[in-house]
């Protein structure tokens, strides 16, 4: 971007910018696609840096797709591409089969690969029950006698792979899948990861961060793991009462000066960690009680709002970085939890304006136009210059379903560890996607189909202790 010199003396505002803004205001309303999504922002910082150059390149890739200017793509009446549902299903099923040699590098992430594919398939409405038997055998091999799941056979247990494996078993569902999990060993292992500062190690001797807080809270609540600590837990030696003690204050220490959440205290705020923080807190107590008590919500809302960019419409993960489809989930899933934190569940927001703390239209446009691989390969991606992969397919589709639905919290009568039940209803104000492009709803905290989450919790609630 060249330096601009013509400046209006009295306002100090660049004349070119003023005329662009006037143009923007008049043209926006008469185009089928609002100018907000099809033109460069009216005010651009003239300083050229590596960051601004990367941003310009991103706009160059996204704008033709956002303008519905690609004749190879089928757009609906709103200028939104159709969801390539069948291609995405085919792509995901392939990722569950034999993979080519370069995937050896992902050998420690096999539970993740299974979760991404199974969750995305469920969102797309595909049948995942045919993977149950194979998953059960694979999961059993990846479980360690000392508790938890590794990334593969013989690998050390890790909270991230344990989270992904437990969610995969929850998605295929059924007693035989649930009963693979050794809950007593899981309890011992989680106790050994629990730290005197309230947080959890990701693995024995591994890092302590907010992913651990979220993954542990998910596993504990889904499996109804008793909260008391085993006697050899380092947290027990330090006098902590149970697995939840000090967890909310650990999360609190991860909020940064920007208002976002970092991996651990005094690091950089990132959208993935904002989701981990809000998800963890929403499991510990009802969001309207625990979130305002723990976090500076106005500052967090301000930081989260800054994650959505125009004209792209998608979210970035952190300040001065690029839009990326996977943040459709990490940032997008923060919004229903933020919304739930603002009022008691007995007074759910009725007004649709209230259900949109971000621009749903922008996110849907980014996902459908830029986040889909429009070729026969299918799958979803970070941005148009990137290849589709299972991780992005899972999280871009999770973001899409959350933009297509409204979530409100209702308290369950039962004494759930996670005592929040959610009402998820279709959002269609306006309806940008055709009805056949709507995905199945997802649980905002657990990132699995809501019904599957309810089924596993009901199952393990009937099994207190071991
Ligand atoms: C930066 O990557 C990414 C991070 C700092 C954190 C990523 C963490 C997750 C996506 C998931 C954590 C959650 C769980 C449940 C394990 P980058 O520099 O490549 O991307 P950026 O430029 O968009 O920040
Ligand atoms: K990224
Ligand atoms: Zn990404």
From TrEMBL:
- What class does this enzyme belong to in the EC scheme? transferase
Recorded catalytic activity of this chain's protein: L-cysteinyl-[protein] + (2E,6E)-farnesyl diphosphate = S-(2E,6E)-farnesyl-L-cysteinyl-[protein] + diphosphate
Recorded hits in InterPro entries, A to Z, give: FTB, PGGT1B-like, Prenyltrans, Terpenoid_cyclase/PrenylTrfase
Cofactor descriptive note: Binds 1 zinc ion per subunit.
Q: Which UniProt keywords apply?
A: Metal-binding, Prenyltransferase, Repeat, Transferase, Zinc
Residue stretches making up the Prenyltransferase alpha-alpha toroid domain: 83-448
**Claim: Methyltransferase is one of the keywords in the record:** no
Cofactor (UniProt): Zn(2+)
What Enzyme Commission number(s) does the record list for this chain? 2.5.1.58
PANTHER family of this UniProt entry? GERANYLGERANYL TRANSFERASE TYPE BETA SUBUNIT (PTHR11774), PROTEIN FARNESYLTRANSFERASE SUBUNIT BETA (PTHR11774:SF6)
Protein family (similarity comment):
Belongs to the protein prenyltransferase subunit beta family.
What function does the entry list? Catalyzes the transfer of a farnesyl moiety from farnesyl diphosphate to a cysteine at the fourth position from the C-terminus of several proteins. The beta subunit is responsible for peptide-binding.
Q: How does it assemble?
A: Heterodimer of an alpha and a beta subunit.
Q: Can you say what this protein is called?
A: Protein farnesyltransferase subunit beta
Organism of this sequence:
Apiospora saccharicola
